[in-house]
Amino acid sequence: MRAVDGISFDVDRGEIVGVVGESGSGKTMTALSLLRLVPEPGKITGRILYGENDVLEMTDDEIREFRGNEVAMIFQDPMTSMNPVLRVGFQIEEAMAAHRRFTGQQARDRVVPMLQRVRIPAAKERIKDFPHQFSGGMRQRAMIAMGVSNEPSLLIADEPTTALDVTVQASIIELLRDISRELRAAVILITHNMALVASLCNRVIVMYAGRIVEQGPTRAIFKNPQHPYTWSLLRSMPRMDEVGKERLVSIRGVPPDLGKLPTGCKFHPRCRFKVDRCLTEEPPLAEVDPEQLARCWVLMKNVPNPEMQS
Amino acid sequence: MQQSAVTPATDPTIKSPLLRVENVVKHFPTGGAFGRAVVHAVDDVSLAIQQGETLGLVGESGCGKSTLGRVIVQLQPATSGHIYFKDTDLTKLRGEKLRRMRQQVQMIFQDPYASLNPRMTVGDIVSEPLRNFRVARGRKAEQKVQEVMRVVGLNPGFVNRYPHEFSGGQRQRIGIARALVLNPTFMVADEPVSALDVSIQAQIVNLMEDLQTQFNLTYLFIAHELAVVRHISDRIAVMYLGKIVEIGPSDAIRDRPLHPYTKVLESSVPVPDPDLEAARKPILLKGEIPSPVNPPPACRFHTRCPIAQKICSEVEPPLEMKESGRFAACHFAGQL
User: Fold this and answer.
1) What is the mean pLDDT of each run of 10 residues along chain A (310 residues)?
2) Does position B264 have pLDDT exceeding 90, yes or no?
3) Which range, of A34-38, A197-201, B43-47, B208-212, averages the lowest pLDDT?
4) Which of A247, B37, B161, B309 is 20 to 30 A from A130, comparing alpha carbons?
5) Closest Cα to residue B182, out of B105, B68, B243?
6) Range list for CATH 3.40.50.300 in chain A
């Protein structure tokens, strides 16, 4: 079974790239692959270049070094990624010291400034707290502090705001925006939330059934989506700026089982705009505009009045 | 007529209320060191729901919205207050009378995984209310089950399958079929789409809208996602720390929220449009949400409110009618 199939993309320093998709689209597996953290018996083939170095060719020492010093990963649920019996401050210190970028004393001295940097009030007192004494938003801040404490150049955030309340989400979004600017890191944001992508990302990758179905600059993808999946997804979610009661565009059926993928285009059983060719031949990810790629034989620009057909 | 006597439960713009909630309180004892600590989950809530409308109930985790929903359908008893369904006080009903009323009041839950018994077939799950309420048995029950399955978009041929054989969206359809089988007039939906993928959410929202038209249903739609709530609701009630802080028509609230907390919520939600996002300035709240065990005095939002004044920590603002059909509990309504 191929959870992720034939993905190619790049991320630059200072850039935030959004990887969007629903459950089972392969977005999280893509992120884990970048760190060679794919669970057994998973195998990765291809090339993952970090600068000049291929992550897949690194020795165990090199990969540990890479994961610890170059990359930070922020997960959806900070409660499960922190040790419940260790004080928050100690965990951040340990994360820094473990990768030997800082000495023990340096690491200790950096804990409070790190927590202040992610705007945890009364950081000096809070370092003595245990994770359960932090609220969800504070835990996520602490996770971000832990992640960025080694000044990584690649930050991978997997649904970093999904488990949080909206007002807390808003402040974490602002924090991520600021932190990515300060670090000048490359950021990969994995999410199901298109609005979050519109808010944070320079470029977007839309995944479906383990494939990239569309990618391009954020503005192009939102204003002029060419793949029917992207187009429908954008119209299936209620919007805060919606006026009147328009019916949502629903995508019929469910995402395919990766073990039993359909022939041809993997989206065709759910697509309202398919033609005969889609049933038998899988379209390539092809350029539809400079910088914008879509994997579709039809393309939305060739569909007259798509709203009428949905 | 005294202006000050009008509450959301006696809102004159609600011409034919199906449900009226008056001064409902729900406290939970938490044990505490001396067994005296009390969670003020729902504190003095009043509202009315118009026949055939959808009232959306929004708020962040711990604000009491789910508890209020459960108290309304009598899954949990209210600590005090009254819940009038078609002029009958549900809190006063016991035994057979309560059972009969309850047929008309059903609930849809967030997690279709946890709320369906994995050992029962879909047919048994959907027909269980018919047996419990002794409405139909045997052939008649079977027919009814097949009918509601068709109505919610499930293949009636799947009656003998088990919940795990279905996707999340289909399981939510099973939950809706179970709620619908007794021909209720009122449904409380507690985060019915929150656990579902985006493309599936739209299917369920559309289905709920269709069912409302087809069966003249009245909904209380509880969710934390403001965009979803606004889409489906005619009116919206906003809760903060056990209290309703604002209630009014969805459109009016979108155009001009009256309570500062509503305004903060509105500003916090991103929009799927990069141009609008570049311009949006979220109002960030200071501090953390206080504990419902020990809520702040007077206005509960005053500790975090961007426009709070001295009076806000001294005098609790009543939830009063500010404009026709619009209520807000704020000394400085509309000023943020």
Assistant:
1) 88 94 90 89 91 93 89 82 89 82 85 90 90 88 88 92 88 91 93 94 96 97 97 92 82 89 96 96 96 97 85
2) yes
3) A34-38
4) B37
5) B105
6) 16-201
Q: What letter does residue B138 receive in the DSSP assignment?
A: H
Contact across the interface for B273 and A222, Cβ inside 8 Å:
yes
Kindly determine whether residue A167 and residue B224, on different chains, have CB atoms separated by under 8 Å: no
pLDDT category at B2 given cuts 50, 70, 90 is very low
Are the CB atoms for B9 and B321 separated by under 8 Å?
A: no
Answer whether A242 sits within 8 Å of B206, measured CB to CB.
no
Question: H/E element holding B326?
Answer: strand B326-328
**Beta strand segments in chain A, E:** 16-20, 49-50, 53-54, 71-74, 154-158, 186-191, 203-208, 211-217, 286-289, 292-294
Measured at the CA of A50, the angle between CA A153 and CA A37, to 5 degrees, comes to 90
Cα-to-chain-centroid distance, residue A85: 29
Contact A170 B268 (CB under 8 A): yes
Percent of chain B whose predicted confidence (pLDDT) is above 70: 97
CA distance B61 to B41: 11
CATH level 3 topology of A16-201 = Rossmann fold (3.40.50)
Nearest to B176 by CA among B110, B98, B90, B85: B110
Residue B19 and residue B48 in contact, taking contact as beta carbons nearer than 8 Å: yes
Count Cβ neighbours within 10 Å for each residue of B210-227 and write b for 16 or more, e otherwise. ebbeeeebbbbbbbbbbb
In the numeric block, the tokens 């705007």 are attached to A119
| Number of Cβ atoms within 10 Å of the Cβ of A138 | 22
Which residue in A171, A247, A251 is closest to B284 by CB distance? A171
Token pair, residue B71, equals 């108290």
Query: For the stretch B60-94, what's the b/e string if a residue is b when 16 or more beta carbons lie within 10 angstroms of its beta carbon?
Result: bebbbbbbbbbbbbbebebbebbbbbeeeebbebe
ipTM of the complex: 0.89
* pLDDT attached to residue B33: 63
Cβ-based contacts of B200 with chain A (< 8 Å): 254
Mean pLDDT of chain A: 91
| 3-state SS, residue B322 | strand
Flag if A137 and B288 touch (Cβ within 8 Å).
yes
Q: How far apart are CA B234 and CA B54, in angstroms?
A: 5
pLDDT exceeds cutoff 70 at B173: yes
Asked if residues A153 and A72 have their Cβ atoms less than 8 Å apart, the reply is no
Q: Distance of CA B310 to CAs B12, B30, B299, B313, Å?
A: 33, 32, 11, 6
Q: Residue A310: what pLDDT?
A: 64
**Euclidean distance between CA atoms B130 and B120, whole angstroms:** 15
Q: Are A208 and A229 in contact (CB under 8 A)?
A: yes
What does pTM read for this prediction? 0.92
What per-residue confidence (pLDDT) applies to A53?
A: 92
